[in-house]
Amino acid sequence: MTGQAERLLDVCGVDVFLGRGSSRKQVLFDVGFTIEQGEVIGLIGETGSGKSTLARVILGLVKPTAGSIHFEGVDVAALRARHQQLFRRSGAVQYVFQDPLRSLDPDFTLEESIAEPLIARGMLSRTEVATNVREYLGRVGLDESLLKRLPGQVSGGQRQRAAIARALISEPKLLILDEPVSALDSANRVQILQLLQSLVGSSVSLLFISHDLGSVAGITDRVIVLYRGEIVEVDSTEKIVNEPTHPYTQLLVGSAPTLTSGSSERAWRDELRARLELG
Amino acid sequence: MLHRLIRLPSAWIAFGLLLFIIVLGIVGPAIAPYDPLDGGAKLLASPSLAHPLGTDYLGRDTMSRLLAGAPVSVLSALEVSGIALLVGAIPGLLSVYLGRAFEWLTLRIVDTLIALPFLVFAIAMTALLGNGISQAMLSVGILLAPMFYRVSRAAALAVSSSQYVEAAILGGSSTVWVLRRHIWPKVIAPIGIALANATGAGLVIVASLTFLGIGVQPPAPTWGGMLASDLGYLDYQPYAPVFPILVIMITVWALNLLADVLRDASGESGRIMLKKRALVKSKKRRATTVRRALQGGQPT
Amino acid sequence: MTDVSTPDAGTPAVSVKGLSIYNHIGEVPAVTDVSFTVHPGEALGIVGESGSGKTITCRALLGILPDLFEVTAGSIELLGRDTEPLTQREWTALRGSVISAVFQDPASFLDPSIPVGHQVAEVLRVKKGLGRRLARERALDLLDAMRIRDPEYVYLQYPFELSGGMLQRILIAAAVASEPRILIADEATTALDVTVQAEILDLLTDLKDRLGLALIVVSHDLAVVSQLCSNVLVLRAGEVVEQGTKGQILFAPQHDYTRMLVDEHHRFGLERFQRRAVVRG
Asked: Global pTM?
């Protein structure tokens, strides 16, 4: 019997309001979805759709006004500060920011940044930490000579790998990535996507957040489409790309130029937009 | 940051000078060749071997007086910046973490303090609290506190809203750890710079107050006081004011240089500095030759 | 408007021959032996990553090479005119009326304290000498041509009040205001959401067809380039790795690098799923 405890992540009925007083507005409306173990999910939405807010809710940085976020049966949204820290220490859910130049302390060497989650936990000896750091460094394809460098002294691809190593070193069950490859060049993109792909299968579930379906369609099992704070469609990647049902999904898929076809005709896109305005 | 500082030649100059002045401030009176209060020599004498900087209107050795006056000036300036640091930096840092009410309250107090003019306030405070240098320094310290408040608050705000702090928290780092390893190092540098600047400002204010006769009464020697009396005897010793002025100037300059050096060695400029220095030095020479060649229309 | 889509094969709008640019700061060649032509009504795509030399090439075409970047070989001809002997003054006259450009981050190219409409009108007043009222009218016409729904309203908005896509339309309006013959779009849609990107790409195609512009589209994304352009140039580390028609590049890439770019799409992009053409209703 599959109960809530079996599911990795169960988001249910989440409403989020941001801002205070007169500028208070609702950014997420009754959002709900699940992620099973070992799945790769793409959360696709344009700027302002609420996808970043949703990520922050899952991470416990923002409290939902209503609804629950069950991680392996525990409602992490309802945790008090102390328990929340314990949960974070467990490293079960980790996050890779979009811009590694900002998410890595510019005065920390790559080694210090990658080791930080382990040191924070304070359970391992110094040598054990160093061993772990080396192991994950290797896994993300970084050379040991880069350990003592500062983020500003290495390339964008290397920075992002270091950020991924930092996230992986906690051995998370769920890894959330926000546009992880958008700032990288083609060679690096391919390598990092391959790296992430190799993680699938080992017990890490991946949640990609992006505005561009095309950038993650290759490795996602399922796609969740978010539009103006609401989930409008959830389906397998194949289905979403080939048979989208909601007008916004159709617009999304239709807008992306591909090598085999340009974006769909403007008239069709305009019609979809009109439908979205009304609906 | 220390290893970056070592690379800058200006850092050596600044530290060297300041060390010298501080040492002087401590041992000054002890090494003065003559008793600064003893007016036994020839009056208003020109510089000579016996009196390298001459004597003043009471026959007291100028150099001895400058040396004896060092502690007052230097230590008072440090007192000013110390008070400003405590009164300003602590609320500044806390204002980022203690909530809106505290933030609003401290911001308004700071606004008020900024509006008050230094010397007038200092004079008023000495009238209220008594004519001692410490009282004057206390009031000036309070008036300089806003600078520290703003600097420490700005630094703390920038860091605490940064993504790497968020990343550390998400990774499970405790607030104490984040404060210690991420926030504190980035906050201490701007505060250090402000401290250097404030001490310089404090010194000028001390000199101004003693010049006006507030704080320390003659015959005790102070740099400002000496300047005041020297001005009274310009006909006889036109060069005399130069000495106290030079001493004040050099000290303030050294402090400002220290502030610049700290600024260059910290933060983003400090990180770039290490990489750039070697590059720029060799490129600069090539670049000027290239530019000249380009202007001359010749290929390099 | 007259259909100027048939290029006059005799006079290319842009003719670059053997262009080489040396970077004196880093002491490396920035661009080596690049050649291409673009005819009126035609679109050329330049595909490259950061550091490939694509931006330096664009800057050379606009006459805004940074200090210490020197053209060491080759020539650039705009509308048949050699740009080498041009003075700063002559370049200034050329920019806007012969060649123009839009870049990646629209907000940084607009004055945040002036309503956007005025900034478009300013181009008209400076380049075409129009009076204030006439410039305003013409600016409104331009905004309308950019398919902005309520030009009067948008005209008075400040940059911070508008979305990225809207700002890019404003900049395109400003770029075509004084009727240039050549337009460069350097990563113009990179920072935009994919739905907005489609609109802007359509707009560029539209302008190219209607105004007979010679369009140069620079992007790291092969798909963007393939939508708009008939010819493609692939740059890497300042060198032309491959060059040809869109069909050649996409379906018969010769060079490993090009193949890698194409493969990336087939492996990780939507192409993996699409067996048939465009998704329609």
From this structure: 0.80
The set of residues, in sequence order, having a beta carbon less than 8 Å from that of B105 and lying 6+ positions away, is none
**What does the alpha-carbon distance between residue A223 and residue A42 come to, in Å, rounded to a whole number?**
5
Strand-strand pairing, A40-44 and A66-71: unpaired
> How would you classify the pairing of strands A40-44 and A205-210?
parallel
Q: CA-CA-CA-CA torsion for C275, A223, A200, A185, nearest 10 degrees?
A: 70
Give the tens place of pLDDT for each residue, A158-217: 999 999 999 999 999 999 999 888 877 777 888 888 888 888 776 789 999 999 888 888
Report how far apart the first and last C-alpha atoms of chain C are (Å, whole number).
Answer: 31
| Helix extents (H) in B161-266 | 163-170, 175-177, 184-211, 223-232, 242-265
The segment(s) of chain B belonging to CATH 1.10.3720.10 are: 69-265
**Close Cβ partners of A96 (under 8 Å, ≥ 6 residues apart):** A103, A160, A163, A164, A167, A175, A176, A177, A178, A180
- Determine how β-strand A222-227 pairs with β-strand A230-236: antiparallel
User: A147 with A110: CB under 8 angstroms?
Assistant: yes
The answer to whether C215 and C204 are in contact (CB under 8 A) is yes
CATH superfamily of B69-265: MetI-like (1.10.3720.10)
Least confident of A182-186, B236-240, C63-67, C207-211: A182-186
Q: Is C24 on the interface with B (CB under 8 A)?
A: yes
Assembly ipTM: 0.87
A277 burial class (0-12, 13-18, 19+ CB within 10 angstroms)? Answer: exposed
Q: How far apart are CA A97 and CA C251, in angstroms?
A: 35
Residues in chain C whose Cβ is within 8 Å of chain A = 49-50, 163-164, 193-199, 201-202, 220, 222-224, 226-227, 250, 260-262, 264-275, 277-281
User: Between chains, do B271 and A106 touch, taking CB under 8 Å as contact?
Assistant: yes
A212–chain C Cβ distance below 8 A for any pair = yes
Nearest residue of C to residue B298, measured between CA atoms: C72
Cα distance between residue A129 and residue A116, in whole Å: 9
Residues B294, C25: C-beta atoms closer than 8 Å: no
Distance separating alpha carbons of residues B280 and B284, to the nearest angstrom: 6
Determine contact, residues B275/A149, Cβ cutoff 8 Å.
no
* Alpha carbon distances (Å) from B11 to B6, B16, B255, B272: 7, 8, 11, 17
For B142-172, b where at least 16 C-beta lie within 10 A, e where not — what string? bbbbbbbbbbbbebbeebbebbbbbbbbbbb
The per-residue pLDDT for range B149-179, each reduced to its tens digit, is 999 999 999 888 899 999 999 988 888 888 8
| Spatial separation of the C-alpha atoms in residues A66 and B173, rounded to whole Å | 28
d(CA C158, CA C110): 9
CA distance C177 to C135: 10
d(CA B207, CA B202): 9
The domain locations on chain A are 244-279
Q: What do you get for the CA distance between the two ends of chain B, in Å?
A: 40
Q: Are A163 and A176 in contact (CB under 8 A)?
A: no
Q: How far apart are CA C98 and CA C180, in angstroms?
A: 4
d(CA B1, CA B15): 15
Is A266 close to C222, i.e. CB distance below 8 A?
no
Distance from CA of C84 to the nearest CA of B (A): 13
Pairing of strands C231-236, C43-47: parallel
Residues of chain B positioned with their CB less than 8 A from the CB of A95? 167, 170
Q: How far is CA C208 from CA A227, C47, C255, in A?
A: 32, 19, 30
Q: Which amino acid is at C211?
A: L
How many other C-beta atoms lie within 10 A of the C-beta of residue A121?
Answer: 17
Phi, psi of A4 (to 5 degrees): -60, -30
**Tokens standing for C254?**
């010769």
